[in-house]
Amino acid sequence: xxxxxxxxxxxxxxxxxxxxxxxxxxxxxxxxxxxxxxxxxxxxxxxxxxxxxxxxxxxxxxxxxxxxxxxxxxxxxxxxxxxxxxxxxxxxxxxxxxxxxxxxxxxxxxxxxxxxxxxxxxxxxxxxxxxxxxxxxxxxxxxxxxxxxxxxxxxxxxxxxxxxxxxxxxxxxxxxxxxxxxxxxxxxxxxxxxxxxxxxxxxxxxxxxxxxxxxxxxxxxxxxxxxxxxxxxxxxxxxxxxxxxxxxxxxxxxxxxxxxxxxxxxxxxxxxxxxxxxxxxxxxxxxxxxxxxxxxxxxxxxxxxxxxxxxxxxxxxxxxxxxxxxxxxxxxxxxxxxxxxxxxxxxxxxxxxxxxxxxxxxxxxxxxxxxxxxxxxxxxxxxxxxxxxxxxxxxxxxxxxxxxxxxxxxxxxxxxxxxxxxxxxxxxxxxxxxxxxxxxxxxxxxxxxxxxxxxxxxxxxxxxxxxxxxxxxxxxxxxxxxxxxxxxxxxxxxxxxxxxxxxxxxxxxxxxxxxxxxxxxxxxxxxxxxxxxxxxxxxxxxxxxxxxxxxxxxxxxxxxxxxxxxxxxxxxxxxxxxxxxxxxxxxxxxxxxxxxxxxxxxxxxxxxxxxxxxxxxxxxxxxxxxxxxxxxxxxxxxxxxxxxxxxxxxxxxxxxxxxxxxxxxxxxxxxxxxxxxxxxxxxxxxxxxxxxxxxxxxxxxxxxxxxxxxxxxxxxxxxxxxxxxxxxxxxxxxxxxxxxxxxxx
Length: 745
Ligand SMILES: [Zn+2]
What we know:
alpha/beta, 23 helices, 16% strand, disordered N terminus, binds zinc ion
């Protein structure tokens, strides 16, 4: 998957630009290795590696996926790395039968086929391509009247309620977009639907945005978005049969029927070519204006008279995933690991997703290998990973993280992720303790188009995009661009959410529109005609990610800082209070309108609507424990910044190793061993994927989701739990400060 990289937004903050104490003994030695590193990544190498890796389909279990893993392994070894393939055995369903037909008012069978294009050489590799489907849909054979549900979000079903339409016993047709795809069948099933079709409307990534492939980059009429619909946000990502444990040969496995993360109803993705006749056959009310796409038809909601028969059956096979894991042992601190990853598996040929992110990773590895030959030795161990099985739902990275959980909890300093790349602006998301590090890195990488640093260009874009004068003021005054919070959708998930390893996810984008995501047209031909065609942003990504790795691996004192974390939690807390207030106001006003008879009086009898039900106004919540915890963290962060700066100018060096040991635990401290309510695999109490957002981040998720789901007593207890981890974090940061302050009296 290629996650949406949240555009960085800046807010004012005390500048924290002090250099780290304990830098290499010879001043400038680290900088010298950095500038040598920056000169190495080569666009031509990346182009040739992409050509090789995308030459044939390379999904989980495929022959070419295996060959790619072997090829990547050979490259790491050639460049002087100690590399192995680690294999796990995971449940990976592939389609045995796919049938969608309209049986009323007329009969029509959907094509469910992406045609080969003569101008696109790999699009014709039919024998090796996976058919269009959604992985981890349950088997099913269902028939029912069709209902159009827009994006299939919870609020879309509230609109349907107002129109008096129930989806109980119906097949729903949802469009891709606005939420992660797996949310659509989940919410449909919760409302009683028996089946779910998901189509790509041309409004979202087709001709509405430009010429379609092969003339332009947008989705053609028969292009289909494959993808996983595993219900991981409410259970866990990775192999559905071995939750919480590595899927090794000996692992205990659940039966497929016991797997908690499969969908409850059958699901299949379709093209807009296939969807149009279904939509045209719908009657019933006209869809609300915001629901209408770009097809040249009136969009009706139904139900019916179109009646649809959907049948899917899968081979529920166990398939191997091959992770390539390569190491450069650390010279001084071999038991501190800096981990870097991008996946190598794709849905089909996968040039953009994921190879455009993998080839920069390989260039970083080649460059670090060259530095080794020139005499560089990293202080810490560097671990580079090319993950398999990311597309079905983070299989390779999750199983590896689970299999090595104890060791990673001990040793992992940070994880740096990428997942594809494009042309444009640097997107940065991740742990806020690394916010200053990645901002500093971005200031030292040149943008290939704008003649300024990639940081400056991202800041300029944030200014151009800002919604208010206040926002612009903040962006101009704040020393760093704010990091987006991590939701899910890529391989950092197990590291941050399950193990508490501070993580970053970065990539360039924003100038390369496209509609080939997870289709047979995401290939070398498309990428080299429409995206980062000369691989200069590939080079910029290798420079950015590689520099972050170098600084983490070679720092004396680890480059963790806490002012940004305190600032982010403060913002999340403000946001929670606003969320509750908004809900209180909305429900109060709606109840009042119900009492005043507003809904009856405004009803159009020819297009009748159902008044919403009365609801209890949400109670006030006591946020004081969180307010106190955030304040404590702010004080600790300020003390740490002073202690760090003080240690820098002092003659007596602090015991940096002891401080680092504390810093490495700083993300772990944000976990609760019990995890989030009803999803114990997710242990982080500051960041999580939203249960109804999927890839979207939910911040202070225990509290936020309790408010969203109207569980107010739970919201109170989650406030206490979140406050406790933030207080613990403040104490841990104080312990690090105390170490740095030793000897100053
Ligand atoms: Zn991907």
